[in-house]
Fold this sequence. Notes:
Region (SAW): 468-542
Radius of gyration: 23 Å
Strand order of the largest sheet: 1-5-4-3-6-7-10-9-8-2
Family: Belongs to the GRAS family.
Keywords: Transcription, Transcription regulation
Region (Disordered): 1-26
Amino acid sequence: MMNGCPVRAVPLNNDAGPSVQAKRTSQYPNDIAAQNEFGDRHSLIGFSLAEVLSNNDAGDSKQEQTVHQGHGQPDASMTHANILNDQGSLSAQPTPLHNFLPVPTDEMITGASLTDEQTEYFSTTDSLGTLENAILGPELDISCDSPKSLLQAKNLLKQGNWRQVLGINTGDLKQVIIACGKAAAENDIHTEVLISELRQLVSISGDPMQRLGAYMLEGLVARLSFSGSKLYKSLKCKEPTSSELISHMHHLCEICPFYRFSYMSANGAIAEAIKSENFVHIIDFHIAQGSQWITIIEALAARSGGPPCLRITGIDDSNSAYARGGGLDMVGTRLHSVSASCGMPFEFNAVHAASHEVYLEHLDIRPGEVIVVNFAYELHHTPDESVSTENHRNRIIRMIKSLSPRVVTLVEQESNTNTAPFFSRYLETFEYYTAMFESIDVALPRDDKRRISTEQHCLARDVINLIACEGAERVERLEAFGKWKARFAMAGFRPYPLSSLVNNTIKTLLDNYHSCYRLEERDGVLYLGWKSRVLVVSSAWC
């Protein structure tokens, strides 16, 4: 625990020191069998970018607004206003809606990522009952203002009249979840009563709201106990192995198509921007296993006129090294293997650092290269002025602009949790992940152990971080697309429309999924989500 944050990070690669190291690899591997085992959240549907690279007219004209077939009216129950109106005496200032309705151009609708921050994990070998007991019990001590306040709250529970006092219907899970957040924000005497009630209503194998409620409960208890140590000791949890974590991330991409399709849209913009170039330098600020670049390498190698010389700079910190089961050299070896099999000249530059530690000298910029930069689910982890004396978020964007890149791709979750006060952030987390858990619910049975493990290892940690942590330890600091748009515009960027060819391919592929998935293309930006809620936005800049 650091700075009062009740969520502890998993011990990571001890060899990764605090200093930034840059290392280039140039040897081709002799054995790539082990590398082919990789499957990560950068996995993409196998589709060819060769058509993009050979289509000289693609992307030359502005695309008209296209809405995915099956787009219905927004689900009114998903809005802040309706959530709060259902709560009787509960009230709060609503945050902007995250939906697919037309919105002002300069204030795009707001919509946790996948991060590589490691928290302690539940054992994947435990039974559902053991896991549930670990999360939901035993009762934990939550301090109130005073013994008198605690006694009053317990008396309310015994008398059963606290529901009348708070205007909560018996068994109404949504009301209880919201009331818990409001009570925690206000240090209300009813907090313990509400936490006890919530514990009875949630389940990691229940419906989407019950499952989300279980993880929100965990975050609340950790927040209220300040250290959260008793909670995590009761979990008796262990970290998953690297291969297990990679498997969970890969599985998340399989059951949540908006992750996979957002990478596809970014790759389409990149392929179109470099289709005629001979020297290309891709800078990836969160390379993970590097799987995103396999389709790019294969497409470039197959283009008419021969392949270019490709150089990739991969940036990642020790958290991702743990997830990979090794350092960035492993990624370089893998990509070298793919390039060699395609007959394409390739070089890999490894930068062992978090995004906010990166400066120009680490990027090894060379004359004559066309530069491409990829920000996929990473910039929201970069500190801004709200948590750092230096606004690294804006600094990184300005630094990249100074390189005059051909294209910059930005993929981010559509949510507003960066500087919001606790209760607003709590409501935003509830809305966003309700849609996320609902979308997962249609993909796998509720008692599917793969689903449970994926939610625990890839989503629960983000929910807990959003609720339990503050200050520098709260790394899930998502911003709405409107805010990202303003940051890029202030740095001198202008929009670069995504590839209409690739977007049409995504639309076709999405038809194979549940009808509640939504895709909308507006002003060259791709919005992906569930029902009326935007979950991921993919854009490009130049």
